[in-house]
Amino acid sequence: MTATEPFDTSLPSPIGRLAQLRARAVEAVVRDDRPSDVQQLMAPAGSLDEALWEALGGADAPKLLVLTGSAGTGKSATINHLLQRERETSAGRVGVHLADATHADAPDQGQAQRLAEFFAPFADDAPTTVTEPCRLVAMNTGMALRFFHDLHNLNGAPPLNALEAVLRRRLGLPGDYAPVQSWLDAAVLVVNLDHRPTAGEPGDLFDDLLRRLDPSLREGVLEGAPRCATCTVRDWCWPMANAVTLSSERGRAAINAAAGDVALARGRQLAPRALWDAAAELALSGVGIDQDNDGRDPCYAIVDVARSHDEAALLRGLACNRALDSARPGTLVADIAMRDPGYAPSLAAHELIADAGLNPELDGRRFAEWLTGVTPLHPAASRGAEAMADGRVANLGQSRPLGRVLARAAWLAGELRGRSGLPPEFARALQAQKAGATENDVTEDGEALDGALSAIEEGLAEVFGLTSGPEHYYPTATPVPGSDADLLVEAKLVQDGLITTQRDPIASGNPAGSALVGYRPITLALKAGERSITVDYPLWRLLRRAAEGVAPTSVELERFLALRQAIRELGIKTAADPRQTLLVRERGTGRKFRIVTRNVSAGALRATEVL
Asked: pTM of the full predicted structure?
């Protein structure tokens, strides 16, 4: 470090490290069994890795471990931890392994041949005793399905019908599962990382990930941020101030809860890659480093702000304000921003934003308090609070700008509760299903599930059928182009048990694997006739909006093809009963005629026009 340099450039840039955590950075994808130093810091061994290692050393240790999940869920990181543990201990728990089958949706010819050879000890005609250590493979669901589909085209491929049945059942895929040998059932452990809860509750992956943003944590991703101790513009560095806030207990609780709500609203768990990207973007909060393509040290972006004495830029960056304001639509940060309590119709949020600027000294004092965790206030947060208290920054180019910054600081401090995007009735039904209840239970959980089913029925009638007064009608056949009328049948889906709740297919189909990942349901598991269906929040929202009179688009309907087919089958089955009420709807005129059987034995019908 020279007299002209504001920090020791021989030490790593903490802002540069934050940029490396983003999804578009090269460190986002692990492509072999030797992860980089940054990747090891991003994904150190955790409770899941320890549980898997213990399972491989137990008395009933599996002989085949299949790690699966979507891209970015951490398959490569998990398999690398197990391999590293094996190298360190020589415990003989992991044998032949394929760690590179994770980065494609379908195997090429060479990969398919390797997979066939890899799975050969578990072939239909293989000996029932496998004496070698556990075989380990990481592959996504798409590759697994494609491999078994193409297996018969491989010369000399072993018969793997029983193994396919086991994997399909453990992965929760549809199919007729024939009984398999008990030894094979016990030998295979499937761990689907898509089912690992990654955000929402204390101790989840995102909670730990945010904790490791702490600049003072030597084992964290910033490795103690040694450069910061040499920095002369530290009081302008909002990314490090944000990292302190986000890694604090209160900051973690606020952002982790918001991310968990996003996962429920999306109907799927959040991948670690997306979580790291969100954490980095929140901390960086708009710091200008993307345009620096000439190898310039990333920390000089803060030097530029300090030299221009731009306190407005500092305040825009603090409390993750700019990141939440300018997040790209569809990103996790944008969805987290939607949970910002500053936009909630609450008295506390309204007063905070409306009163901002009336008493600058009070604003600055509150701001400093809210950005102070268990550690002393970061110098950049202190400078921002002083600028606010002295009234030096009056306008950030927004409506009630300082109020928005204050509200977000209050959110990260737990003073304002984040907004939830989920209706309480859906959340209650999920909890009831997790508790093992059914809609027939005379309990609060039973009532929650019964209410959810009734709400779903109302939406189904609007989306796929027709509502006439209190009666719901559903199609009895696929609509034929050119027909003059449609024939529908009345059905009471909930009352007659045509749609019911069922045991969660993930927990029941793969109990060992789901227990290892700490599975928590985020979709309702139902049965419509003979079909198993799931209702996630996007589908729930579609059905509830339809019940309120909002017509779904054709794109939305195509997303729920399985549900539409199930309702069609229920309509056909119900119409076979001559005692059921039918409805004829003329396509051209829209007139509707209700048809009931007057005399079953005589086959006499009565038709009445419905207005």
From this structure: 0.84
